[in-house]
Amino acid sequence: MPDFSLEDALVSRGFACIAGVDEAGRGPLAGPVAAAAVILPRPFSCPLLDDSKKLTRKRRDLLYAELTGNPEVLWAVAMVGPDEIDEINILCATHKAMGQAIASLSQKPDIALVDGLPVKGLPVPHEAVVKGDGLSLSIAAASVIAKVTRDRFMEKIDQEFPAYGFARHQGYGTRAHIEALTKYGPCRHHRRSFQPVSQLTLPPADGA
To answer: What is the mean pLDDT of the chain?
Structure first.
């Protein structure tokens, strides 16, 4: 389970305000990539908080409500949409969303703990931690907020384009999603630089 060991190590080096940063939605064929930045208060206790991928949807929703409803938890989310993902590529879009999330925090952190590999262009110093969402409470909190925010966005666009089933698969390349893409072609929420979306020649299904 994640804890404050990484944060404590940074505190011992003189950093006082530490943000955890994580993303959701790098791999899907549709929808935005989302990133969250979170500064947790100290002391802080949330025994059930973990990497969002290890949690049920119900548990994520409960943790999201607990985190975002706590006035001592500082958090921000940023999303970069499919048009920009196609223009600058998914890695750059992910890094941009992370930078925007950090910049949107009401308090500027001294340093960020970022899940994954090093990120270019962040507005504060950072340390990258592979699988950090399972190690750091701050990153785990960011993973939950980013995931729930993006999932709810996909549920919203599912109402506009119900043929694709976005609420069920969140834009990932499931068999049902591929079948809908083959039948209807891509809509404006699809990432046209991603395969197999890029291979489809049917006209956009904006009315689907």
So the answer is: 94
